[in-house]
Design goal:
The complex is a heterotrimer of chains A (about 210), B (about 300) and C (about 650). Chain B is mainly alpha-helical. Chain B has one domain. In chain B, about 75% of the residues lie in helices and about 0% in strands. Chain B has 12 helices and 1 strand; from the N terminus they run ααβαααααααααα. The radius of gyration of chain B is 19 Å and the shape is globular. The model of chain B has no long low-confidence stretch (mean pLDDT about 90). Among the domains of chain C are: about 190 residues, no CATH class; about 45 residues, no CATH class. Chain C is about 70% helix and about 5% strand. Chain C contains 22 helices and 5 strands. A two-stranded antiparallel ribbon of chain C has the order 1-2. In chain C, strand 1 and strand 2 form a beta hairpin. Chain C starts with a helix and ends with a helix. The chains are: A mainly alpha (about 210), B mainly alpha (about 300), C mainly alpha (about 650).
């Protein structure tokens, strides 16, 4: 029988695939929101008894990851009126192949780290590794600054997932601290992106290389 | 055996009806009444009564096209368990044979299109040659998964009786991706929206319809029938997978199967109504998604089955 | 064995007699063709007889007490002898009308000499029982085929192609020789059987070296560079023999080494599957991008070598992981594909030969509508194209089917076998789809539609000697496709000579598979006939009108508006962009009334490109530095000779 967490995580892995294949920012944001929701409800399934504090923290995480961050991105692109597709450095077909390779490689890596001993599903660590590497890939392969920030958020989702898998009990406080940092980071980036946009009239990071010298 | 042959003939006879379900659904979304459900039968009869016009450029290959594509579809259907009953023919490796027979049908369809010397048909032929390559890779990916689960290489082992529910029990959630991958293959192989729009007015943007522009009369009727059967063939996979219920009584079984099949056709109709056709260079991207899904399902299952 | 040598004698006679008769053109050709084909027929019957005999024949000739020339005909040799004799027989017949320029009488006679030498050396390589014999005839094979390639030596590109072929075949021979040297150094015997006692690491090194060497003959990526140059340059019956059988001698070499080493490391299977996958996919992608019909067929040979290697790799994985069924399926499937490919590839080269001879152009995009003027060529080419795309009920499907079955057997094994089998199966599927695209392009553009240039208008076909071999080959395709039992038994005989250690291989499970194919093919043909009957019935007493093609509203279509081969292939080659970079050349259109302009494109082979920059330039640079040795004066040269003698005296 498959652990319920695993079904959720399979969907997360699938969302990585779609994130690599999609060329529109709203889709990418929706995928990120979905990942945020899934990643933050995983603790509900893993721990048998939740403390009241745990429930509160998890719900707060859910709100921030699943609603506040995606919503702020959404409003950002709406305000800036970005409708164009995400420009790529690595083409979409190649990205899809890369994500497939990643999904194959991640379980092997997680076997190597031998982190599956923790209770719960078998897929947590490999999903987490996939998310981290996928986030880096998005950072590397997309030129649009917002897509890059989204890649960063995806990485953060993966790190949170690793944290959930490895620690238990008192992890919420640390995690929550990290989350608040991320939130602050997102806000700062929003402001910065807005000024980049005002300055250069688009968010192509290739423009930034003009700043050299 | 007799039962299988009866089911085979029944499936052939029902295929135009089901194709009309798509039209009805599309009409519903458009707020129209739509053509009657038997429209395709009327069309076929009308076409069969007509004569034909042939282009001066064509040779005998042009006339072989409809025959090869229809024969390939009929042949494929022989190996398919309809309504979960055992198929007419079945042997170890029949899946490979069927996929390649369908390839033969495709070869002649393309060759017939190239025979007319029309630039539009050549364009359609080039697309018809391209997209199924990825579909085939996906099909074989799914076959690898199914072989892992059942140890068999026949359609009968995947879609007969309780076998299909067995697939779900062993593999679980990844089967969902297989269903999605199959649905994408269905849309691509049968030239439906969002890969191709059979109802568009501009020949430049078509795939399948533009290839058969010059066929007329009974020849065109045979092509249409072949297309309906092929659509039924792929829909049966999806129908069996989404509805693996196996009832004891053959008749009840058949009714359940027909209902599931209608569900698939309605889904096609809904897809066509709510989606627009992709830009041509995006299509390969879309079809590649099916491969990614199948690959993904296989890898995930490998993690679980161990 | 006597019959075998007798047949070779007759073939050689067929090569030497024309030299004496070269003043009488037709008589010379008749004598040459008759003698060579008679020799081939004797050899063919003999090798079929040998194939089904349980014992092996061996014979040995001592030479100067230094070494012996020994020959053995076992199942594997006999299996490879069959296509060699058969294709050579038909190619000889084909050459009668193909070489029809009396002005080049002497050259034609010489070409018969080298042709007979090529056939003889191929058969002798396949039967060689020790290293020396093998290497001797391998060299004769390479050299005679080189002389055949440069038949049209007055053309610069032919000379270039010949030179490239010469370099590649000798670099390959060097690698083979180093593998053999290692074998001799460690075992101390010239025989192949001595190799079984080598230490394991030596076996691996020997196999890798031999694989690279034989791979360069077989056209395995990236050693294939000579192939797409040499095949278009050679006369078509020579291309048919070279592509149909000679490159398979490379496959034979790999198999012979595998038998001799008797070592079942998983590494061998991995190398072969991966090499096969790369050659297969890239071969067919480049084939699709070609505009020269014979170049395209040459690339398609690379693709088919890939399929054969994948089959061999699956067989070797089956051996190393102890799965007899997988091993036999893989090996038998690839041997079947060897035989089948020799049939349809020589057919396609012969067809291309007629097309080029009649229209005077190699360019696919300049042709069109040939089906109406060259009915038999068109029909046979169509059958060959269907077969090479691996479609049932033709023979190409049979070999691939068994390779697939073997591959699926590997899916259930350990993780490594799973990954390799997965790659093998998916690449076979992709190759199948791409081959279909490639050959619909050729058939569609060359034989269908309307003529695209003047040269394609005046084509005809009248020479029976060119058509008969093609009809024979085309007839074999569906026959083997529907009744694969006999050829499958032949392949099983070949596999049992591989010393897999399974004893006698039982026929019954495999016979059931062949019967399944026969049955399914029969049902399919029945359905097709029913549909034909239905169509006939539907068209009774109907009015048939003939008119122009529907132009989608455009009323004055011209033949130039047809889809060309390049545009047909463009979307697929774009998909494989990283490996199929197009060199495009077209000046920008300028002004209100622009002058006549042009567009040309050419897909570059990635191996060719990198070999140039990684290998050729450094080698040229290095040898450029040694230029000073060449003084152009005789005195330093005498000094060199003296120096060499002195050094030899001191050190040897």
């Amino acid at each position: 029988m498959i652990h319920p967490v695993d079904i959720l995580l399979i969907l997360v892995l699938l969302s990585v695939l779609f994130a690599f294949a999609s060329s529109r920012l709203p889709v990418l944001i929706r995928i990120l929101a979905f990942q945020g929701v899934v990643v933050s409800i995983v603790p509900f399934f893993l721990e048998h008894e939740m403390t009241a504090g745990g429930i509160i923290f998890t719900t707060a995480t859910l709100t921030i990851r699943g609603i506040i961050i995606p919503w702020s991105f959404y409003s950002m692109i709406k305000k800036m009126g970005i409708k164009r597709e995400v420009e790529t450095i690595v083409s979409y077909n190649a990205s899809v192949f890369a994500s497939l390779l990643l999904i194959v490689a991640a379980p092997m890596l997680s076997h190597k780290f031998n982190m599956i001993s923790f209770s719960g599903g078998t897929l947590i660590t490999s999903t987490a590794i996939t998310l981290v590497v996928a986030g880096m890939f998005l950072l590397m392969a997309r030129r649009n600054a917002i897509a890059m920030v989204l890649g960063y958020i995806m990485m953060e989702n993966g790190i949170y997932l690793i944290g959930t898998a490895l620690s238990s009990g008192a992890q919420h406080i640390v995690e929550f601290g990290i989350l608040l940092d991320v939130l602050a980071g997102v806000m700062i980036m929003a402001i910065m992106l807005q000024s980049i946009k005002q300055k250069y009239d688009n968010l192509d990071t290739a423009q930034l290389s003009k700043l050299k010298e | 055996m007799i039962e299988s042959i009866i089911l085979w003939i029944l499936a052939i006879c029902l295929s135009p009806f089901y194709a009309a379900v798509i039209l009805k659904v599309k009409a519903f979304f458009g707020g129209k009444k739509g053509p009657p459900l038997l429209i395709h039968y009327f069309t076929l009869i009308k076409l069969m009564q007509k004569g034909s016009v042939y282009s001066n450029s064509t040779t005998f290959i042009f006339k072989m096209g409809p025959i090869a594509s229809l024969s390939a579809a009929l042949m494929a259907l022989l190996f398919l368990p309809i309504a979960g009953r055992s198929p007419v023919l079945s042997f170890n490796g029949d899946v490979i044979f069927v996929l390649y027979v369908l390839g033969l049908g495709r070869f002649f369809t393309i060759a017939a299109a190239m025979d007319t010397a029309s630039p539009f048909e050549g364009m359609g032929a080039a697309r018809e040659a391209f997209f199924p390559i990825i579909c085939e890779a996906t099909m074989f990916m799914i076959l690898i998964l199914f072989f892992q689960l059942t140890g068999e290489l026949t359609f009968a082992a995947y879609f007969t009786g309780i076998q299909t529910s067995g697939l779900w029990r062993v593999a679980g959630a990844p089967m969902l991706f297989v269903v999605m991958a199959f649905f994408i293959i269905l849309l691509t192989e049968n030239s439906r929206v969002p890969v191709d729009d059979p109802a568009t007015h501009l020949e430049l943007t078509m795939i399948h319809e533009v290839m058969v522009l010059d066929h007329s009369g009974p020849d065109f009727g045979l092509i249409e029938l072949g297309a309906f059967i092929k659509l039924l063939f792929y829909s049966t996979f999806v129908a069996r997978l989404i509805c693996p219920i196996h009832a004891a009584h053959p008749f009840v079984n058949f009714v359940i199967f027909c209902a599931a099949l209608s569900g698939v056709y309605v889904a096609i109709g809904v897809t066509e109504s709510v989606m627009a056709r992709f830009r041509m260079d995006r299509v390969s991207h879309f079809v590649l998604t099916s491969f990614a899904l199948a690959f993904f399902a296989t890898v995930i299952t490998l993690e679980f089955v161990k | 064995m006597e019959a075998f040598f007798f047949s070779i004698g007759v073939i050689i006679a067929g090569g030497t007699l024309p030299l004496m008769l070269h003043r009488h053109f037709t008589l010379m050709k008749t004598v040459g063709v008759l003698s060579i084909s008679a020799g081939c027929l004797i050899g063919l019957t003999n090798s079929l007889f040998q194939l089904f005999r349980p014992e092996t024949d061996a014979v040995s000739f001592k030479y100067l007490h230094a070494f012996s020339l020994s020959f053995v005909i076992d199942g594997l040799s006999a299996f490879f002898l069959v296509p060699v004799f058969f294709v050579s027989f038909l190619a000889a017949l084909y050459s009668f009308h193909y070489l029809n320029t009396p002005e080049k009488s002497f050259r034609t006679a010489a070409s018969y000499l080298f042709f007979s030498l090529l056939i003889a050396s191929m058969t002798l390589v396949v039967t060689a029982a020790n290293i020396i014999t093998f290497m001797l005839f391998w060299e004769i094979m390479s050299l005679s085929s080189f002389f055949l390639v440069v038949y049209d030596y007055h053309k610069i590109e032919t000379r270039k192609a010949g030179y490239l072929y010469f370099v590649f075949s000798h670099a390959g021979a060097m690698l083979i020789l180093s593998a053999f040297g290692l074998m001799y150094g460690f075992s101390g015997s010239f025989g192949f059987d001595g190799a079984a006692i080598l230490p394991e690491w030596v076996k691996i090194v020997v196999f890798v070296l031999a694989f690279a060497g034989f791979g360069s003959k077989a056209g395995v990526f990236p050693f294939h560079v000579w192939l797409p140059h040499a095949h278009p340059a050679a006369p078509s019956h020579i291309s048919a023999v070279m592509s149909g059988v000679m490159i398979k001698i490379g496959i034979y070499g790999i198999l012979r080494m595998y038998v001799a080493l008797n070592y079942h490391a998983p590494l061998f299977g991995e190398i072969l599957v991966i090499a096969g996958m790369i050659s297969g996919i890239l071969g067919v992608v480049y084939a699709l991008a070609q505009q020269d019909i014979k170049r395209m067929l040459a690339y398609s040979s690379i693709e088919n070598m890939g399929i054969i290697l994948i089959g061999l790799g699956i067989g070797m994985i089956g051996m190393s992981s102890g799965n007899p069924l997988m091993a036999v399926l893989g090996f038998a499937g690839s041997l079947l594909h060897v035989l089948n490919h020799s049939i349809f590839k020589s057919l396609l080269f012969m067809g291309a030969g007629i097309v080029i001879k009649k229209t005077g152009t190699h360019s696919i995009d300049a042709l069109g509508g040939l089906m109406k003027k060259m009915r038999i060529t068109g029909m046979t080419f169509l059958i060959g194209s269907l077969a090479i795309s691996g479609l049932p009920p033709l023979n190409g499907f049979v070999g691939e089917f068994f390779i697939y079955l073997g591959g699926f057997k590997g899916v259930g094994l350990d993780k490594l076998s799973f990954v390799l089998s997965l790659m093998a199966i998916i690449s076979l599927a992709v190759i199948g789809g791409l081959a279909l695209a490639c050959f619909t392009k050729v058939v569609g553009v060359v034989f269908q539609g309307e003529p695209r240039s003047e040269s394609a208008v005046k084509a005809d076909e009248k020479e029976p000697m060119m058509l008969i071999p093609m009809v024979v080959l085309a007839a074999l395709c569906p026959i083997i496709g529907v009744f694969p039992k006999a050829v499958f038994l032949m392949a099983i005989r070949g596999v049992s000579a591989l010393n897999l250690g399974y004893g006698r291989i039982p026929f019954s499970p495999f016979l059931e598979m062949t019967e399944n194919i026969s049955q399914a093919a029969a049902v399919f043909l029945l359905i097709v006939f029913c549909m034909l009957a239905l169509r006939f019935f539907l068209y009774r007493q109907k009015t048939i009108t003939r008119t122009g093609t529907w132009g989608c509203g455009f009323t004055r279509p011209t033949v130039k508006m047809q889809y060309t081969g390049s545009s047909y292939a463009r979307s697929i080659t774009d998909f494989f962009k990283p490996v199929t970079a197009l060199n495009e050349d077209h000046p920008a259109v300028q002004g209100v009334f622009p002058a006549k302009t042009y567009y040309s494109s050419h897909a570059r082979d990635i191996a060719e490109r990198y070999m140039e920059s990684v290998f050729v330039h450094p080698v040229l640079f290095f040898f450029d530095k040694l230029r000073w040795i060449q003084q152009g004066d005789i005195h330093p040269y005498i000094g060199y000779i003296l120096l060499a003698i002195v050094i030899l005296l001191f050190f040897v």
